[in-house]
Amino acid sequence: MAGETVITIIGNLTDEPELRTTSAGAQVASFTIASTPRSWNRSTNQFEDGQALFMRCSAWRDLATHCAQSLAKGMRVIAQGRLQQRSYQAQDGSNRTVIELQVDEIGPSLRYATAQVHRVQHGNGGGYQGGGNYGGQQQSGFAGNQTQQQPQYGVNPSNTGQQPAQSQQLGGDPWASNNNQPSDFGSFGGNTDEF
Length: 195
Prior knowledge:
Helix content is 10%, strand content 37%. It has 3 helices and 10 strands; from the N terminus they run ββββββαββββαα. The strands form 3 sheets. A 5-stranded mixed beta barrel has the order 1-3-6-8-7. The N and C termini lie far apart (43 Å). 13% of the residues are buried.
């Protein structure tokens, strides 16, 4: 939208995302991302940390649930969203103003880690629902018109006790594994016993 300040921040989560439900029934996840700039000091031949930025963030609705399920304290993330300013009255009666990032997109930083993504199944099929005419065939969604169930992203099967069926996992998904062994990619926010 016009007039909004869109930024991207890369940093580490300072704590677990806190998931709440508003009185209207919408879910919101609140968390803080700490971003510390580093610069090379030629005189000492060392990196030096700059002043840390602690950005308060909020994610809404499905994204809030996905954040609560996938993110954990200390994880390095890349978040993009809109800066929003709001004012409130503190308990001591003083007026205060805070600037927060309303997150539109968030994901793991793969600079120092690996991640495994699982698609979340929604009632409407999930994902992009637009269509297009590619190569003379009408297609919709990410993988065209498919009748088989989509694999689930965002849900770690080892956490739910469910393992997706082999045919479901390979159905048009280029990231799917064709064996039942643990992935070479490790996990992001799931079981850390593999490391």
